[in-house]
Amino acid sequence: MNPTTLVALAALLLGLGGCTAAAPGERDAADLGHPPRPAIRTWNDLAGTRWQVVALGGGSLLDGSTITLEIDAGRVGGRAQNRYFADVDAGSDGVLRIGPVGATQMFNDSPRGSMDQERRYVQTLGTVNGYAIDGAALHLLRDGAVVLRLEPLPAED
After folding, report:
1. Contact 98, 91 (CB under 8 A)
2. CA geometry: angle at 126 spanning 124 and 130, to 5°?
3. What is the pLDDT of residues 47-102, one digit of tens each?
């Protein structure tokens, strides 16, 4: 090989050395159009983040419905059919207590069944006692089992 080819090959290999691929099915914040987040070590590291529920009790949400979760220091809130809110007590040992959960009381069952879905969500949220981060997903747990799966939403401007 001539010296120019060797230099080009070395530059290519050095450039590729910093590239990594996510595991199959795993996405990082950049893939979702979000700036990278600092490493999450405790519940308090989630303060200021917004999430969208993608699974409730092992099933998906109703088509056309959205449930969000916003995490602040000592509180969570968001929107299902109505706005909801709750205090959070997060221990350093990963134990989490959410609730009691309060909500506004406006009736809107569109899409059909969404009021029942909201009721199930609020009840489920009140039983959460742990959490886990899996790639870009936030899993809320009850006794170690995933009861809510959430994906990140972009920060509001």
Report:
1. no
2. 85
3. 999 999 999 988 888 888 899 999 998 999 998 878 999 999 987 676 889 988 88
Alpha-carbon distance values, 4 to 1, 13, 16, 88 (Å): 8, 14, 18, 61
Structure-token pair, residue 117: 């879905």
Contact indicator for 131, 94 with CB cutoff of 8 Å: yes
Q: pLDDT per residue over 4-55, tens digit each?
A: 443 343 443 334 333 333 333 334 444 445 445 556 667 888 999 999 999 9
DSSP 48-111: TEEEEEEEETTBPPPTT---EEEEETTEEEEESSSEEEEEEEE-TTS-EEEEEEEE-------S
Residue 11 to residue 37: CA distance in whole angstroms: 30
- Over the stretch 104-136, which tens digit does the pLDDT of each residue have? 877 776 678 778 888 999 999 999 999 988 888
Task: Give the number of other Cβ atoms within 10 Å of residue 119's Cβ.
Answer: 13
How far apart CA 143 and CA 95 sit, in angstroms, is: 10
DSSP label at 112? T
